Amino acid sequence: MDRSKEAAAEPYQRLTELRNGLLGLHKTLLDSESAIYDHDVARITSRGHLLGLVMDDPWFAYLHDLSRLVVEIDERLDADEPATEAEAARFIQQARALITPAEQGQGFEKRYFEALQRDPNVVLAHGAMVRLLSTLREG
Prior knowledge:
Elements (H helix, E strand, L loop, with lengths): L2 H39 L5 H10 L6 H16 L6 H14 L8 H12 L1 H16 L4
């Protein structure tokens, strides 16, 4: 591979790893929230029912921030032009900021903090994401 192709491949590879890590975290959070909703709020009767809840129910609304970031990365990876170092760095920075839990925060950061307090699987997924982010330099 010539040097210009190598340079173009690196941001793509980093964004792919970031996307896959965020998807894993999203799945873990979705599983955690679904279990609590199913137990404490109302029975989830099917995957279609769950999809409707994820899209429209306030219980799951905080996950939209994480979903949106994954979609933005997907769109960038699918673009005709290769991703740049600066774009990869911006997405990595966004991911770091997003997965920073805060007990006194609002939206995602508060609900993420709460999920980390109650579910060891979320703690493990968070640890994996933090490790991944530590390997992905910002540019």
